[in-house]
Amino acid sequence: MSRFLTRRLGALAATLLVSSFLIYAAMYAAPGTPESFLVQGRTVSAEVLASIRAQYGLDDPFLLRYWHWLIGVLGGDLGESLTTRQDVASLLMSRIPTTLWLTTYAAVLIVVFGVAAGVAAGLRGGVFDTGVLLASSVGFAIPTFFAAVLLMSVFSVTLGWFPVFGSGSGLPDRMLHLTLPAVALAVPAAAVVARITRTAVVEERDAEHVSVALARGVPWRVVARRHIVRNAMLPVTTIVGVNIAALVAGAAVVEHAFTLDGVGALLINAVQQKDFAVVQAVALVLVAVFGLVNLVVDVLYAVIDPRVQLGGESA
């Protein structure tokens, strides 16, 4: 297991290094420059522009600028926001709790409802199976932003059950405020997870080894737990991991709709204001989160099926 983890951590480090270069390069390849934003369209002298470029190191060669930025990131220095003049790391730390609560809440909903509905549909079949297929098709077709607007209209404006704005304070109040955003964020992903889980369970249920186990008199509950559900969890783990990793990026739409002070809302504002340092930091965080979730999925693969671990170490 130690060699397996070492390989995966090395791959994650290489991914983050390449991603950091692409993120830094993409920001400077995009239209607009930091100095043009800083002057806010005002006409300034060449000396002022030169001083701005010197202050932010824009006259240095590109690779040197990237190297200084990378060293700063490794040391915890993500730069300074061009709009607020605040430390970017401090801005992120103030926004991360809201996004973390939201995505964790949504991830729990995806696992509980998506996996549970898919397993039940695959094992039971019949009307319940048809209902899950229909509900998953509808859920997958609903865009996240439309789901957010619909939930707000029904459960906040019409029924008044949930608040619309803010993330709340304290556990009960926070859960109340984040319920609608989490549901809006989880609906499409839960639909995909339910559909794929159901398909994986049906394939395992109709497999030959299941028929043999039942013919030998093994109780259905044991067969369902050990032979069907467990074997079906490999593809399910993959799709759950991918969808949970995508929640951080998808949270931007939901945070904007519900005016939450999360990382996603910070990213949208930074892009609109061409705040290079903030965009680069948030993008790097998104890549890191996606890589860490994939690492967790790899470890779960090795736990569910030790052959995955052995195959990785023999390569």
UniProtKB/TrEMBL annotation:
ABC transmembrane type-1 domain: residues covered: 96-297
Membrane topology: Multi-pass membrane protein
Family, similarity comment: Belongs to the binding-protein-dependent transport system permease family.
Record-linked CDD domains: TM_PBP2 (cd06261)
Subcellular location(s) of the protein: Cell membrane
Entry's transmembrane regions: 100-120, 132-155, 175-196, 234-258, 278-304
Gene3D superfamilies: MetI-like
Coiled coil start-end: none
Name of protein: ABC transporter permease
Species: Sphaerisporangium flaviroseum
